[in-house]
Amino acid sequence: MERRSTGFWLLTIFFGLFLLFLYGPTITIGILSFQGPGGGLTFPMQGASLHWFRDLFREQAVGDIWGAFRRSFALGLMVMVTTVIVSVMGGLAFRKRFAGSGILFYLIIASLVIPSILVSLGVGLIFNQFGLRVHWASSGFGSQLTWTLPFGLLIMFAVFNRFDKSYEEAARDQGASAWQTIRFVVLPIIAPSLIGVGLFGFTLSYDEFARTLLTAGSYNTLPLEIYGMTTNVTTPVIYALGTLTTAFSLLIIGAFLLAAWAGAKRRARLGSDAGKGV
């Protein structure tokens, strides 16, 4: 057997410590959420049960957990759909150089380096100045788009920079209109990237705190609700909520990955059928 070098083991230990640092807090919360009825917020654990998960589904004395979850889920879907549509349109627009395209690109990316709390403050002030209601579905939606759209656009820019235009030329040679070319040629080819953009949009919105803090209005989203609970909830029920929201996030990611896998299988099958037809 080949003997591993000292450098290999040092890198392995470093990587293991990095993973522990990355996922240790989440694992710790998951473990503490399964404490018995007499459990507290720290180790050692007081028994093991599903008590705090059951307690989570009872009426809580403080907060509106499930209302906040519904708002975060609805907001995530709104942001996801908008991010996908605008990112595709922006990617198509930037395929050709136009006056001011460079400046516009840097303006789009600039929102990523502006402190999130300042974006939240700015959006809230703009809505107040125009006499508009500060609400999670309007101002909160707008502030979160300043976070998700740059990521979606960067992905689409990379995708269209590598896109082979010969596919579009072949479709036009066959008499396809511009819309038919986009619908039946371009979109199916970039579908895996669209799934990635959608995943970015939903997950970044679902757990966004800073850009929603001053734009959610009177109704909290789930991250704001959890933050509020940290000041007045002194039982592991907050850990149970954290475990369930983490599991939900992983479920969403799994669903997107499954959709990408199914799409790849379908394209491979269609390609195989086309090859046989030839």
Automatic annotation (TrEMBL):
Record key words, sorted: Cell membrane, Membrane, Transmembrane, Transmembrane helix, Transport
Name of the molecule in the record: ABC transporter permease
Domain ABC transmembrane type-1: 69-256
Membrane-spanning intervals of the chain: 7-34, 73-94, 103-127, 147-163, 184-204, 237-262
Keyword Ribosomal protein part of the UniProt annotation: no
SUPFAM superfamilies in the cross-refs: MetI-like
Family of this protein: Belongs to the binding-protein-dependent transport system permease family. CysTW subfamily.
InterPro entries: Bact_Polyamine_Transport (IPR051789), MetI-like (IPR000515), MetI-like_sf (IPR035906)
Compartment list: Cell membrane
Transferase is among the record's keywords: no
Main subcellular localisation: membrane
Originating organism: Mangrovicoccus algicola
Pfam family, one: BPD_transp_1
Gene Ontology annotations of biological process type: transmembrane transport
Membrane topology field: Multi-pass membrane protein
Annotated Gene Ontology cellular component terms: plasma membrane
Entries under CDD domains matching the protein: TM_PBP2 (cd06261)
